[in-house]
Design a protein that fits this description.
elongated, 5 helices, 191 residues, seven-stranded mixed sheet, alpha/beta
């Protein structure tokens, strides 16, 4: 059975390569806009499943992995900023704050139609960041494609006071502990 990552994210691809199992990548083409009244965890879960299902339509015999991450303070969501100005604004809002990053994961078995999913929260406290510090970080790291503008796998780790969660890879965008559990449930042999 083929393994397919429903993502074009370099970060997710690099994480999945840790499993040393061959896989393909495919772009899911899903609108990531939260639905009215949808909680941040529900948004992440829905989008992870929709991404996997969108790609699954193109495969007859595959396990398709979808993932999505939503950063939030209460109900205020911080998506991918897309621009330098929005990245700076996000980091201004998050400085000194506790931010939750919900990383949802879905695996769709195209042979059986089975959908398995999990959500892994990571709790992050940002340091009190100065304006110049934020500008330098955004100029150097260019975190325009990361929820909440914080690339913890790079310089973004220097913005943090603390973090806690069950899976250190969840904050990067693909919770490998949960993924290994879901893949094993589908019969994939992992070391």
């Amino acid at each position: 059975m083929k393994l397919v990552l429903a993502s074009t994210s370099t970060y997710r691809r690099l994480l999945l390569e840790r499993f040393q199992t061959p896989f393909e990548t495919a772009s899911p083409q899903v609108d990531e806009t939260p639905l009215p009244g949808e909680t941040p965890p529900a948004t992440a879960n829905r989008l992870a499943i929709e991404k996997a299902q969108a790609v699954a339509r193109n495969y007859a015999d595959a396990l398709v992995i979808g993932s999505d991450q939503v950063a939030h303070i209460g109900e205020e969501i911080f998506g991918k900023p897309g621009t330098v100005a929005r990245a700076i604004a996000q980091l201004h809002r998050m400085r000194g704050q506790a931010v939750t990053f919900h990383t949802a994961l879905a695996v769709v078995n195209t042979r059986t139609g089975q959908v398995r999913s999990e959500s892994v929260p990571t709790f992050v406290r940002f340091r009190e960041l100065g304006d110049e510090e934020i500008r330098r970080y955004v100029d150097k790291e260019r975190p325009l494609d990361c929820a909440g503008s914080a690339k913890s796998e790079g310089l973004g780790i220097t913005l943090l006071e603390s973090l806690s969660g069950d899976d250190p890879t969840a904050l990067i965008g693909l919770p490998l502990i949960a993924l290994s559990r879901l893949l094993r449930a589908e019969g994939v042999q992992l070391p």
